[in-house]
Amino acid sequence: MRKGLTLLVFLATFLGAAAGLACRAMIHDAATLAAVIKALTLFTDIFLRGVKMLIAPLVLTTLVSGVGRMGHSGEVLRVALKAMAWFVAGSAAAMAIGLAMVTLIAPGAGLHLTAGAGATTAALSAPQMTLLGFLTNLVPTSVLDAMARNEVLQIVVFALTAGVALTQMGSKGKAVLEMAEQLSFLVLRMAMLVMYLAPLAVFAAVATALI
Q1: What is the dihedral of CA 49, 55, 58, 63, to 10 degrees?
Q2: Per-residue pLDDT tens over the stretch 150-180
Q3: Cα separations in angstroms, 118 against 112, 113, 121, 122, 176
């Protein structure tokens, strides 16, 4: 099934490119093109919203059930430290690649843009990130708020805490652990249903980009 879905995504890419080029060549009315783009964007937006809808419950349920099954807090700590090391290494690599690309390509270097009358950069200012603020932000004030805002790191902290607590509950936490496992299976099945929309979303995204 995964191979068939991958093939459909590749096929949708080529069909989307052909459809986008055909629309650009055949439709010369700006209003009609805008309507076509708006209709195609609907499919892409629905797919992306479906993926975002499942991120928080998938992270929560899989981590709680996985950590709860380890059965020992020391093993949980080892895995947590390894995961954090991978996260830091991946983030550093991503930043290094981004800085290298910006240095080599220098995007916007020849545009010579000037700010319009009354323009201000006040809205672009962001609070300075500090280590203390980062560590404080890791702990959610409410897991429901973290899930609503898709704050993945906060969800991870809550899930790890819940998983460690389950390992210490013994047989008393068995029912909760089984429920978390069943919920993770449910969310994975929902993710598969959402992925069925991937070919249509890819078709719409490629077509929109080439119109």
Answers
A1: 180
A2: 888 889 889 888 888 888 887 888 888 899 9
A3: 18, 15, 10, 12, 58
